[in-house]
């Protein structure tokens, strides 16, 4: 598929802007929703080219961990913004607002870790 950088950027901006507060999408999900599957690595660059603010903090890695190295300023800011919207971080992974995930999967499979 041939496309222009502008077409790609605008599709990414629209997709990221549509992520509801307290919810997240991975870079790959953003790329697919924007109509450009297999372009996940380009999503961050497109977000950086946005002429206006985007809810960048709602874009996470595929495994639902935050996009930055733990305990860096950017990581802490992303975490704080998501928590202000009602999302939780459990074992380093984002649990969206209204998620029916009541138990951590590792805990369900392996039992309590207080051993």
Question: Could you provide a short overview of the structure?
Answer:
The chain is mostly helical and 115 residues long.
What does the secondary structure layout of this molecule look like, with pairings?
Blueprint: H1 5-17, E1 25-26, H2 27-33, H3 40-48, E2 59-60, H4 73-84, E3 88-90, E4 93-95, H5 105-110
Parallel strand pairs: 1-2
Antiparallel strand pairs: 3-4
Structure description:
The chain has 115 residues and is mainly alpha-helical. The chain has a single domain (5-110), classed as Arc Repressor Mutant, subunit A (Orthogonal Bundle). It is 41% helix and 9% strand. The chain is built from five helices and four strands, in the order H-E-H-H-E-H-E-E-H. The strands form two sheets. Strands 1-2 form a two-stranded parallel ribbon. Helix 2 packs across helix 3 (40-48). The radius of gyration is 16 Å and the shape is globular.
